[in-house]
Amino acid sequence: MSLLQRAVLPLCAMVFLSPVYTHAASTFMPDFASAEHVFFGDKVKLPTTNPGQPFIKLHLPNGLNLTYGEILSFGDFYGVVDYPISQGKTEQERRDRFIAAFNSFSETPTIISEATQILAVIHDEQKMVEEALKKGEPTEELYKKLGHDNDIKFNCITGGYCDPKTWFLPPWGRYLSLANDDFDHFGENAWVTYKTGHELALEQAVLAHETHDLKKLELAYALNAFACHFLSDRFASGHIRTPRQELTDHVTPGTIGSLLASFMHEEENFNGLRVHNVRGDQWIAYGDKSYFNPKNNKHKDLLEETLQASANQIFAAFQQGTTQIYDNIYTLIPQPDEIENTGKLDISPLFYWDSKSSQLMLRNDTTNLYDRHWTSAWWGWSTLIKLQSERGGLSEKTQATLALAGLGEQALQNGLITNKEIATYIKKKHSA
Hints:
This protein is about 50% helix and about 5% strand. The protein has 17 helices and eight strands. The model is unreliable at about 5-25 (pLDDT under 50).
């Protein structure tokens, strides 16, 4: 029985049954834009013989033929809702979850139409980015103009509402549902998720070696491309030191913790972070649609080097017939120069997990990016009210998240709900 024929059907079935600094906060959306994922993913050369070529189409079991970058982008669109890969309690459970997420777009023939529609939106975005670059326009400005246009399309394609006035209301499409539970895309969880998929890809490459079957090598590359979505997210500045997991685990209710994490995510994406890696490189990392910004060149180059190194390891496993391949990926990923409350140059973390006291710390002056004082005496709900007041209110999707979590009435009373459609939804639900 091959790797992808393992019995993970209960998880797979659930996929289809589940319903800049001053920006307003939102629950998480993809950090690198979908087109950016495709751009840097398609720079990876995939050798079947050295030296390899980019843009090779990988043939999936259900008939989809995709580039490495297209598969890499699918980490924002495919997975099992409520079953993040990194949250598996054992290595085997994490492997099963990764396979289920991968199978959700690679095994089922009925998903081809949906995947094709998603890619059409992504490729339209790529064309707009290319046009902006030709004109010398910052791509960040393009994405400001786009707003949530593509998010609406992606939510619609994956089973949610399509109307711009109501797209954020439940039941969400899979795209929004996955974004709301995106532990796999942050910090150590992103690394764990990548390693889980990378090891599966190495095993598939060894199987290709043993059977002399290049189709199995294609499948190994496809598995690795999907894993590299999470590796690339680990490079985004807003995903490096934001305590995404701890805020959800230690703020009651966890939904509020997730919303609070988005404020720090926005700050660190916009301002960037000084980082280093184990190899000794030092640079400033950025996130949030800044891949093409000249200030981000070193970050971009190191990301591309890391993705290529990961793919090279798959080819080495195929050539040598072993998963025991020299692995230098961890030595390349960015680590924050300043952690917890040790900062002097970077912006002060809005939140950090104090490992000594096992407490979540909040920056005293939430309006001052360089305040070096923190407190453990804070509460989730009052902090959310404070931050939304300081930063211009909550996004429509964030307001919908509160409503969906059963917090709508309280949020309405505290002035957190300003969208008329969401207010109406809450009132109808209360009177039902």
